[in-house]
Amino acid sequence: MAVRFLFARTLYLALVLGTAGLAPALAQADPPTPPGKQKKLPEAPAKLPKVDRTKNLDFLFGALKAAPDEASAKHVEARIWAIWLQTPSDTASLLMSRAKTAVDAKKIDVAIKLLDSVIKLRPDYIEAWNRRATLYYMQNDYGRSLADIQQVLIREPRHFGALAGLGMIMQEVGDEKRALDAYRKALAVNPHLEKIPDQVKSLTEKVEGRDI
């Protein structure tokens, strides 16, 4: 029975991720992190500024790259998150609020169902995909998490939170080359991400070796 379950899980991951070229890495991966371990992806700050509708994302991403210091970068980053988190309708806003309440109450399955409803209602709303990817990641459901991350990046290739999350999953399943690639893409968009530069340095030495 255990062998049949493992085969079914591997087949599921292959079907979900085969087009992205990620199935081999997951099929060969070590068992996922135990549920008790703290898992945290990059996320929006608790307090967000009001959205400045006169400044679009292209402008803000340019400002993020050019930020002279950490404080300035965080200021711009918060504005990017504020735009991403704008809900497209009152119904979506209510469902997202209820999903957050469920997460705070550690009712992750309830939160996922609420996000399912948001995505069904407004599949163009990137942050519903991103939030659900995060919750799947917290549950060690890497197949579904990666599938949602892919949906985020199709809609917004500059989503540094999703790129960092992709790197973290690839690193956890042992695919250090793809983890390094994802981290580098995240830093190319947002050079001020916390802890990611250290991961890039460590993985570069493992994947590409030290400079001679």
Model description:
There is one protein chain. This protein has 212 residues and is an all-alpha fold. It has helices spanning 2-17, 23-27, 57-66, 70-84, 90-104, 108-121, 126-138, 142-155, 160-172, 176-189, 196-208. The chain is globular, with a radius of gyration of 18 Å. The termini are far apart. Residues 1-38 have low confidence and may be disordered.
List the helices and strands and how they pair.
Blueprint: H1 2-17, H2 23-27, H3 57-66, H4 70-84, H5 90-104, H6 108-121, H7 126-138, H8 142-155, H9 160-172, H10 176-189, H11 196-208
Helix pairs in contact: 1-8, 3-4, 5-6, 6-7, 7-8, 7-9, 8-9, 9-10, 10-11
Keywords:
about 210 residues, mainly alpha, 11 helices, globular
Summarize the entry for a quick read.
This protein has eleven helices and no strands. The chain has 212 residues and is an all-alpha fold.
